[in-house]
Design brief:
Layout lengths: L12 E7 L7 H12 L6 E6 L14 E5 L8 H11 L9 E6 L18 H11 L5 E3 L7 E5 L15 H7 L4 E9 L11 H4 L8 E5 L7 H6 L4 E5 L3 H7 L5 E3 L14 E7 L8 H8 L3 E12 L4 H8 L21 H10 L2 E10 L4 H11 L10 E10 L1
Parallel strand pairs: 1-2, 1-3, 4-7, 8-9, 8-11, 9-10, 11-12
Antiparallel strand pairs: 3-6, 4-6, 5-7, 12-14, 13-14
């Protein structure tokens, strides 16, 4: 089923963007990229309530339609925004009063849809969204919750100004309005980035490992995997006091500080030291590796993961002259250093470590990126790591 309203015909709408960021370190970058994507589709009136929960009163304006993005970290590519608004006005089908997209991270299961490929750049996300747009199904959405949607102004006209925009869908249903879900309108949303267990690092602990230091341990989500591997004593370092307090419930000890501030007498204290996606955030990763080297017990290992800046998605964008910082990706705005297999090995060796292994972690690229990778592999001397999302390094004291 195809909708018939031309996208270019829908120009009169108002937009509200806002909400409280869940991940403050990335919040400025989230805001920049979200603004860029949303404002690629001109609105009659734009209201920015970043940092607060937007309400009906913020949806001021005279346009017939309102587009709401109440998650400041949601990424809505222009074609999806246009599509949702157009479907509200499509005379060829019973037009809903409010329409939701689908997402990888949805508040309601009826809105959840997994993408068919990994997207690491905005170009990738646009490709994935275009592929998923072939699904034109419009299904009932009563009872669904999600902070991104398009709504008719008539459906919110009678609501009190203080009603949160997040409460509009249930209010529309209560008033007898029709709520729908567009199965082909895909919006990216971030999950719980600060609570991801690193079982991949725990799987590489040396035999007999009993004492582990987890640098940048966040909320201590790796505790179960480390205990299952036989670790008896887990120490964490975490500068965020809130995350450290959560980690302290699962770890034996958590020091609230940056690594550079540690003054503990830890010589020979640990059988393994973990850096799970930490080194790329440091101004000088060599300082960190040099600092922890004396803390390794005989036979101890440093186990670290770093993103691969030479993955196919990044290279495909570079070939088009693009280098877009995207939150929580290879090109995160909080990444200060970028690595390939050779450069991360060289970093460890320069800090007087012997690198035992550098393993690449594969990902499923989009068809466009896969075709670029295939062409590049035909060139002499091409990197073998275009299909690798990140590297896991295991090293010991030289």
């Amino acid at each position: 089923m195809a909708f018939t309203v031309p996208l270019v015909a829908l120009t009169a709408f108002d937009r509200v963007y806002g909400g409280v960021a869940r991940f403050f370190a990335e919040a400025p970058w989230s805001r920049r990229i979200a603004h860029r994507l949303l404002r690629a589709v001109p609105a009659a009136r734009d209201t920015d309530r970043f940092g607060t929960e937007p309400t009906v009163g913020d949806a001021a304006g005279d346009s017939e339609y309102v587009f709401v993005c109440a998650d400041p970290e949601a990424l809505v590519v222009p074609a999806v925004q246009e599509r949702l608004l157009s479907r509200l006005a499509d005379p060829a089908e019973p037009a809903p009063d409010l329409i939701f997209p689908v997402s990888n991270e949805a508040d309601s299961e009826s809105l959840r849809r997994a993408p068919g490929a990994v997207y690491l750049t905005i170009s990738d996300l646009e490709e994935v969204a275009a592929d998923m747009a072939r699904d034109a199904e419009l299904r009932p959405g009563a009872g669904a919750r999600f902070p991104v949607f398009a709504v008719r102004r008539t459906a919110i006209a009678g609501l009190a100004p203080e009603v949160p925009l997040a409460g509009i869908p249930s209010a529309v249903v209560a008033a007898g309005g029709r709520v729908a879900v567009d199965g082909g309108a895909y919006v990216h949303r971030y999950g719980a980035m600060d609570a991801s267990p690193r079982s991949d690092l725990a799987a590489r602990l040396p035999p007999g490992c009993r004492r582990v230091l987890d640098v940048g341990c966040s909320q201590g989500a790796s505790a179960a995997a480390l205990r299952a591997a036989g670790v008896e004593q887990i120490t964490g370092i975490e500068p965020d006091a809130g995350d450290a307090a959560v980690a302290a419930r699962a770890y034996d000890r958590v020091v609230v500080a940056y690594l550079s501030e540690i003054r503990e007498a830890w010589e020979g204290a640990f059988d393994a030291i973990l850096f799970g996606d930490v080194l790329e955030h440091l101004a000088d990763p060599s300082d960190a590796l040099a600092a922890v080297r004396p803390w390794l017990a005989p036979g101890g290992r440093v186990i670290a993961s770093v993103p691969n800046a030479g993955n196919g998605s990044v290279i495909a964008d570079l070939l088009r002259g693009r280098w877009d910082y995207v939150p929580y990706s290879t090109l995160s705005g909080t990444h200060l250093r970028f690595f390939t297999r050779g450069s991360v090995a060289a970093l460890f060796e320069a800090c007087d470590y012997e690198v035992e292994s550098v393993e690449g972690v594969a990902f499923v690229p989009t068809p466009r990126v896969a075709s670029v990778i295939e062409r590049l592999h035909s060139l002499p001397g091409c990197s073998p790591d275009l299909e690798h999302l990140e590297f896991i390094v295991v090293a010991r004291r030289r």
